[in-house]
Amino acid sequence: MSEAKRLAGEKAIEYVEEGMIVGVGTGSTVGYFIDALGRIRDRIAGAVSSSEQSSERLRSHGIEVVDLNAIGPLPLYVDGADECDPQKRLIKGGGAALTREKIIAEASTRFVCIIDPAKRVRVLGRFPLPVEVIPMARSLVARAILAATGGQPVWREGVVTDNGNWILDIHGLSITDPMVVERELNQIPGVVAVGLFARRPADVVIVGGEPPQIL
Ligand SMILES: O=C(CO)[C@H](O)[C@H](O)COP(=O)(O)O
Q: Which residues take part in binding substrate (predicted)?
């Protein structure tokens, strides 16, 4: 699968234009995109990063990491996903960076999602749905998730997000209406962000392969 990830990550470079500030996600597929971005670093103005991990990798290539507050809308955001349905709605957050990823996706005009073929599903939910929670609300949120969805929330123990919060992964969901589930979970006090990207799906999906497929 890492070859498919590399092919997807490198293909996404075609969406980068001269002088752009590029939004950059998190994960192993994005790692290939960052490395390719490093090869054209003189042609971009910098990057907005969704995680400390990606910031470090961007800086290692000499790419300046820019504060989202210092700029207007972003023309382009490139990120991976854990699942992608035919409407380009996503589950993200396997790397625990979902909140910043959601912020950058929202700020961007074009969201290009890069995946390997195994990430494509008909219905979202086989991958446990990550939810970032305020630590003191963990068990309250877990009970509310069970009541609202019937899914089984499991604490990703030991993982602390870049925002100092915790992750619950919801197992056993079959998400036939992602917009409704996203909205319902967002309303639980203590939830910081839900790893469902239904309200803001990807605009373009690149599926890594020889040749890459554009959806
Ligand atoms: O949402 C994410 C991080 O929070 C990643 O994009 C997602 O987990 C996919 O990762 P990978 O490219 O390593 O398969």
A: 26-29, 79-82, 92-95, 119
